[in-house]
Amino acid sequence: MRTAEIRQRWLTYFEDRGHTVVPSASLVSPDPSTLFTIAGMVPFIPYMTGQQTAPWKRATSVQKCVRTLDIEEVGKTTRHGTFFQMNGNFSFGDYFKEEAIAYAWDFITGSVDDGKLGFDPELVWVTVFHEDDEAREIWKRVAGLTDERIQSRGMRDNFWSTGARGPAGPCSEIYIDRGPEYGAEGGPVVDEDRYIEIWNLVFMQFERADGGTKDDFPILGPLASRNIDTGMGLERVAFLLQGVDNMYEIDEVFPVIEVAQRLSGKTYGAVEADDVRMRVVADHIRSAVMLIGDGIRPSNEGRGYVLRRLIRRSVRAMRLLGVEEPALPALVPASIEVMKASYPELGEGSDRILSIALAEEEAFRRTLTAGTTILETAVGSALSTSGPGKAVLGGAEAFQLHDTYGFPIDLTLEMASEHGVTVDETAFRTLMQEQRTRARADALAKRSGGADKAAYEALQTGLGAPVEFLGYTDTTARS
Ligand code: ATP
Ligand code: MG
Ligand code: MG
Ligand code: MG
């Protein structure tokens, strides 16, 4: 079943059951606490918290999501994309646990001929919050699952909240068993690939207070109006239904791998390290296309920096596959071509998307040409002093690469680690800080008699510091 078809089945199923179809919001998060839209519920946060009254009792969407938190997993696990689509059904003070579970079970295991997904009921496992006897009873009654296939989990895994005072509640996650060739029997285990998490049902029924830890936080009491928030990973369902091994091999992603094969002359499936690179390329190119499509441009901070990093990582992965020539002119159109069935605006904007992506590739190629030799010399001399595993690249070298050759620190870290060399990041950060202090002192000295009180105060409080990218901090991803 093609991905576009699963998405359509989803929307139709919930529309037929009284849900209003709400178009995907932008990847630029409508909620200020995250850079990107990281889940289907993000556009609905004001309704969940009760700040605003929802215009509908029931809604459904297929939301574009970006989770940079998962970037290191990409290509290595079977199921993490930096970009993915989250199917969601939502109830705002309307139906609750019973119906949410019943819909989920019916949609997953109902017949393909009735517009559902047709998964074998024997392959479904679920988790519930260990104190949520109600959910356990409903799963037994509605789905006929045995106790073994309804596994209990603690607060960290199966209790959702935003981390601060506000709505919270137990959740129930749904897994599909891929069979004994993928690992040990016995139910979902974190970070294993036998049981694939496809859907998370969140039952918002409590209000939590500030404080506590992920394993234990204070609950103030029941919510006046209970909500349902669910998220099903479209790509995960697609890869399971398409009979392929992972989410990078589905119809919306694999064509980019095919182009990477053609450009590199390498065969996907032959060497694991090359396969990971091809999957990274296919994932990152798609994310870049979707981000540019939503108006983001490469830059040195915030969202633009994430986009820049995705493009640069793709270009590097192509180089490691042996492709020295520009690769994006072939990769980007291949991704647009498959994604535009669901996102027609990508087709209309394809020239613009391509030219922004290509300009970034060109800029990066110039940086690489200038800096790689310097980096390799520095890595070589670190290795000759201490050998792999122990060698450390000095902060001064990392700083020079950054300052003179425009090598971002994460690229230096990545390239050094490929040679088994670590980087003295503390010394690098100290040098960066010193440079900033110097720059600010210079700027102040240029002003007449330090009359700019606001700038001075900002300096005192640190508020005047340039915006620095502090890693991938949109960490409010749910359990
Ligand atoms: P995982 O434990 O596999 O990292 P999660 O628990 O972080 O997933 P949720 O926050 O519960 O995921 O999101 C709801 C659903 O969205 C998941 O059940 C999964 O199907 C899908 N999903 C989450 N993260 C990704 C991702 N990076 N790529 C593809 N699908 C994802
Ligand atoms: Mg989950
Ligand atoms: Mg999970
Ligand atoms: Mg996760």
From TrEMBL:
It is an enzyme of class 6 (ligase). The keyword Metal-binding applies. Residues 1-479 form the Alanyl-transfer RNA synthetases family profile domain. The keyword Phosphoprotein does not apply. Its EC number is 6.1.1.7. GO terms for cellular component: cytosol. One of its GO terms (molecular function) is alanine-tRNA ligase activity. GO terms for biological process: alanyl-tRNA aminoacylation. The gene is alaS. Coiled coil: none annotated. Keywords: Aminoacyl-tRNA synthetase, ATP-binding, Cytoplasm, Ligase, Metal-binding, Nucleotide-binding, Protein biosynthesis, RNA-binding, tRNA-binding, Zinc. It is found in: Cytoplasm. Its cofactor is Zn(2+). Binds 1 zinc ion per subunit. Catalyzes the attachment of alanine to tRNA(Ala) in a two-step reaction: alanine is first activated by ATP to form Ala-AMP and then transferred to the acceptor end of tRNA(Ala). Also edits incorrectly charged Ser-tRNA(Ala) and Gly-tRNA(Ala) via its editing domain. Consists of three domains; the N-terminal catalytic domain, the editing domain and the C-terminal C-Ala domain. The editing domain removes incorrectly charged amino acids, while the C-Ala domain, along with tRNA(Ala), serves as a bridge to cooperatively bring together the editing and aminoacylation centers thus stimulating deacylation of misacylated tRNAs. It catalyses: tRNA(Ala) + L-alanine + ATP = L-alanyl-tRNA(Ala) + AMP + diphosphate. This is Alanine--tRNA ligase. Belongs to the class-II aminoacyl-tRNA synthetase family.
